[in-house]
Design a protein that fits this description.
Elements (H helix, E strand, L loop, with lengths): L10 E5 L4 H11 L3 E7 L19 H7 L3 E5 L4 H12 L3 E4 L13 H7 L4 E6 L14 H8 L19 H24 L4 E5 H6 L4 H6 L8 H5 L14 E4 L2 E4 L2 H15 L2
Parallel strand pairs: 1-2, 1-4, 2-3, 4-5, 5-6
Antiparallel strand pairs: 7-8
């Protein structure tokens, strides 16, 4: 007998594409939720043809993020397609989307509208800057979020050019934040019967990372050192020695944090003798 999963019998309408949104619904699917991925005609999620497409005609990238989901394509601009989506939302528990600014609003499926369709529905929206911020009208992808949040400032060589990380951490971290928000919203609905709007900004998810340079530059709201703001620190953190890769005869070695941990462990062992 299959072991029950925590989100069994939770139905999710998935209107997401690319990576940030599909990360949310992939994780919900892994916890047992019933995911119905609603894609736009005629081509569906753009990542269906992204990266390496195998002989079967399927993209490995798309499969990675959309496994375990059901799928259908509808025309959001046609009244019949809008009626289908409305009927789906009436019976859903969660609605997840990451379209660009104004896309769902123009079609009558923003939070104010879906609240009227299903007052118990939880809607999670992922965007670059949030749906109610001063930059809410700006589209964004992972690299924009990395640049705006200062992540590129913290990556690469000291005083080098801005450098994104090797992984799409803005997409994935915003997805993880959305999953957490949905979980708490489900808990809230269990107690009150009311739905919630979970508004996730990619930039906010990256701001949540602890930054040594930020605490150094803004300990009381003012710059401690002007150079801490202007100069790129890269991987060399100001409070850690050798916080970067060094090439030795035996190969590259990454120092800093591990060196500090080793020193701390030696000191602790010495003090307890």
């Amino acid at each position: 007998m299959e072991k029950p999963r925590i989100l069994d019998n939770i139905r999710v309408i998935d209107m997401t594409q690319y990576l940030a949104g599909p990360t949310v619904t992939r994780m919900l699917a892994e916890m047992g939720a019933d995911i119905i991925k609603v894609e736009r005609v005629p081509y569906g999620d753009p990542t269906r043809n992204y990266a390496i497409v195998h002989e079967s005609g399927r993209s490995g990238y798309f499969v990675q993020q959309n496994r375990g989901k059901k799928s259908l394509c509808i025309d959001f601009d046609h009244p019949r397609g809008q009626r289908i989506l409305t009927d789906l939302l009436k019976e859903a528990d969660v609605f997840v989307e990451n379209y660009g600014p104004g896309v769902l609003e123009r079609r009558g499926f923003d939070w104010e509208a879906v609240q009227q369709i299903n007052p118990a529905l939880i809607m999670a929206s992922i965007s670059g800057f949030g749906r109610s911020s001063s930059h809410s009208d700006r589209p964004a992808f992972d690299m924009i979020a990395q640049a705006f949040s200062g992540t590129m400032f913290m990556t690469g060589d000291r005083d080098g050019p801005p450098m994104p990380t090797g992984q799409s951490i803005g997409d994935v971290m915003s997805g993880v934040h959305a999953v957490a928000g949905i979980g708490y919203a489900l808990f809230h609905r269990e107690r009150t019967g009311k739905g919630q709007f979970v508004d996730i900004a990619m930039v906010d998810s990256l701001f949540s990372f602890p930054r040594v340079s930020c605490t150094r530059a803004f300990p009381d709201g003012h710059a401690l050192e002007a150079t801490a703001v202007r100069a790129s620190v890269g991987n060399q953190q100001p409070t850690r020695s050798l916080q970067s890769a060094r090439r030795l005869d035996s190969g590259p070695v990454y120092g800093g944090t591990m060196a500090q941990i080793c020193r701390s462990n030696r000191a602790a062992r010495t003090s307890h003798r």
